[in-house]
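TASK: fixed-backbone design
INPUT:
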């Protein structure tokens, strides 16, 4: 396992609807705090999902995973320029902290 990860899954995580339309709706209504709550929920949900996929990867391969995640982000930006533009606009938004601890 690369890291020991502590992250509480939210009730929203059981839904199959995308988060972003709700965030955009809240932003249009100038409900910024509510939008941040939904963004935090989405971040935790997707982190938990990704954690399940990476949980069995050895710690010695952490550098490979970092390279892979950066590559995936670049490919997502290339494949969906509109999403890349929105992600750039969200650059200064701080996501909830993730507790990474190295394990053997």
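OUTPUT:
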């Amino acid at each position: 396992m690369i890291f020991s990860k502590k992250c509480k899954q939210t009730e929203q995580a059981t839904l199959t609807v995308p988060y972003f339309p709700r965030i955009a709706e809240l932003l249009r209504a100038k409900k910024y705090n509510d939008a941040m709550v939904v963004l935090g929920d989405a971040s935790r949900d997707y982190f938990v999902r990704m954690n399940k996929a990476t949980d069995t990867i050895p710690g010695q391969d952490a550098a490979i995973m970092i390279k892979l995640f950066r590559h995936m982000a670049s490919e997502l930006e290339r494949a969906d320029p509109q999403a890349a533009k929105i992600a750039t606009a969200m650059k200064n938004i701080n996501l909830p902290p993730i507790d990474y601890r190295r394990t053997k």
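COMMENT: The beta strands are 3-6, 99-102.
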